[in-house]
Design a protein that fits this description.
Order of helices and strands: HHEHHEEHHHHE
Shape: globular
Strand content: 5-15%
Strand order of the largest sheet: 1-4
Radius of gyration: 17 Å
Largest sheet: 2 strands, antiparallel
Distance between the termini: 22 Å
Number of helices: 8
Number of strands: 4
Structural class: mainly alpha
Helix content: 40-55%
Length: 218
């Protein structure tokens, strides 16, 4: 629960530090500018609020790892929901409006997560998870999107080290194999999720794992 808040607070702080010009820069998400990604974060925060207010009966059907759907193809930005996010982001017109909305809804999501019982079962995407597992998925979501946000902003603050380490561990368990120690947590996440290709040296170090990468998470 604490790691959810730390990752989310750091990501929102990174958005708050953006200049107006930064919103028009490309993000690490295919087809999205930074402003589109920030709009997606608003939608994510709304999803957290909705899910935490949607108790479910029955045994959990997913956990923090099996929650993720793996795709054989990389995102193209052409998905209808992705396109809707772009149009919605453009409708804000002024970056400060997006910042305000993210701070408003994001703060509420953070408070709701802190108050939630980790053992409570909630429903989302027609699945049942415990609150603890659900919020754990968002540690990786926030961490990856923090990397996306600053992909072309080299001076921006990085995600918390503890969030990078936890996300790497989760990705390794999904992949069924650990990344070599030579990989930093950040590089393991970027290469492992297809956000950048491995160098020749990295590919050699990955060994058999290279054939199973990248993992496109959805």
């Amino acid at each position: 629960m604490d790691l959810f808040s730390r990752s989310w607070t750091a990501l929102r702080a990174a958005v708050a530090d953006l200049s107006d010009e930064d919103f028009a820069r490309p993000s690490g998400c295919t087809g999205w500018l930074v402003r589109d990604l920030v709009c997606h974060l608003v939608i994510d925060a709304q999803d957290v609020l909705i899910t935490l207010a949607t108790p479910a009966d029955g045994e959990p059907t997913r956990d923090a790892l099996t929650y993720w759907e793996l795709s054989d193809t990389p995102p193209t930005g052409d998905d209808p929901l992705d396109a809707l996010t772009v149009r919605l982001a453009a409708a804000y017109e002024e970056p400060h409006l997006l910042k305000f909305h993210l701070d408003d809804v994001g703060s509420a999501a953070d408070r709701a997560a802190a108050l939630a019982d980790p053992g409570l079962r909630v429903g989302t995407r027609d699945e049942v998870l415990t609150v603890g597992d659900y919020l754990s998925t968002y540690v990786m979501e926030w961490t990856l999107h923090h990397l996306d946000l600053i992909a072309h902003l080299p001076e921006a603050a990085q995600p918390p080290a503890v969030g990078l380490a936890r996300s790497r561990g989760m990705l390794e368990r999904i992949a069924g194999s650990a990344f070599p120690p030579s990989f930093s947590d950040r590089d393991a996440l970027l290469v492992g999720t297809g956000r950048r290709p491995p160098t020749d040296v990295e590919r050699a170090g990955l060994g058999e794992l290279a054939s199973r990468l990248p993992l496109y998470l959805g």
